[in-house]
Amino acid sequence: MAPLPTYNEALNAALTNTVKVSTIESVDLASAARRILAEDIVADRDLPPFNRSQMDGYAVVASEVKSGVKMRVVGEVAAGATFEGEYAPNTCVSIATGAPVPDCFDAVVQHELTDKGSDVVEFHCDDVKQGKSIHKQGVDAKAEDVLVAEHIKLAPQHIGIAASVGLHEIKVLSKPKVVVITSGDEVIPPEETPLPHQIRNGNNAMVAAVFATLGCDVVDSHHVLDDPEATEAAIAKSLDGHCDLVVTIGGVSAGKRDFFPATFANSGIELAVKGANIQPGKPVIVGKHTNAVVLGLPGNPVSALVCCCVFGWPIVRKLQGISPELPWQNAPLATNVQPNPNRRCFRPCQLVDGTVAVPTWQGSGDLVHTATTHGLVQLPPSTIELREGEPVSCIAYPWV
Questions:
Q1: What pLDDT does 242 receive?
Q2: pTM of the model
Q3: Residue 217: CATH number of its domain
């Protein structure tokens, strides 16, 4: 039997036949959060667009201010207003935070450094510098600067920036359509009371939530029993042209009641990956049908979660037409960890204070131990324990 491919080999094979399906659509600002930006957001003018006061105080000529100096207050500038008067030596104007600083003045002295006079004000400070307490025009960005680059997942601050440059709609990538299918005679709906030999279906809700977080539209999710006809009917329905990615959970190993591999073959799905030399997730399957990519996940919940991240995430990114490369980075281990001697291990981990802590687990069926984790760490195959402080490759979950 040929050796299983490494993770990188399997991922490259999985991505080979994955092609962009996303198109560009416009959504209003209220609907844009967590969508993938399709086009750069560009400044329509300088930001800030004028010299803006950072304090409530007095706009002055800096060189005229010394402790004990008194000046006549010749006007007032509120936010949203302008000063229509003219400059005369040793005069100033009262100004509010956010108001435009008149061109004839080059500094703002906050109220706390004065006697707060209304007609005449006395200053209680020395060495006022030009530009003091002024947010200068164009210092944040110049007109035509790219403020938010395409293909970023839109966060609230990005939406605020879009609104500030006059956008009431944002161009985003359409969501790849996903169908999620769990399997197994022992699996019952979450709302039912299980018999001693049964388990509730946590995988369906978890996997659907992962792909929703990745920017997909989960158009259907259901469960099939370990039955070849039911399995073939579920796959046939999913491949009817209405989805871009079919994700199955369970039934992908070599057991007598694992019906997905035979069903994939009978359905005209060309397999690019049939197993990978990783832990957990060794039985993972990736294939391509005319209408959709098919991702077969193992049934153990940690395996399913891990494979959603290390295979599903880059596949979705490529379906969206953006780079499938994931943001892995290096960080030191917080404690000693024993890797798998034969397989690359992807362990749920805690990313705290710049270090990687790997909690104890009871294997790929132990979803509970993931509750306090923030991402995944890659542990290369080794018979030697990895020591505290050694750098390892890690990644935050896409929903963190």
A1: 84
A2: 0.91
A3: 3.40.980.10
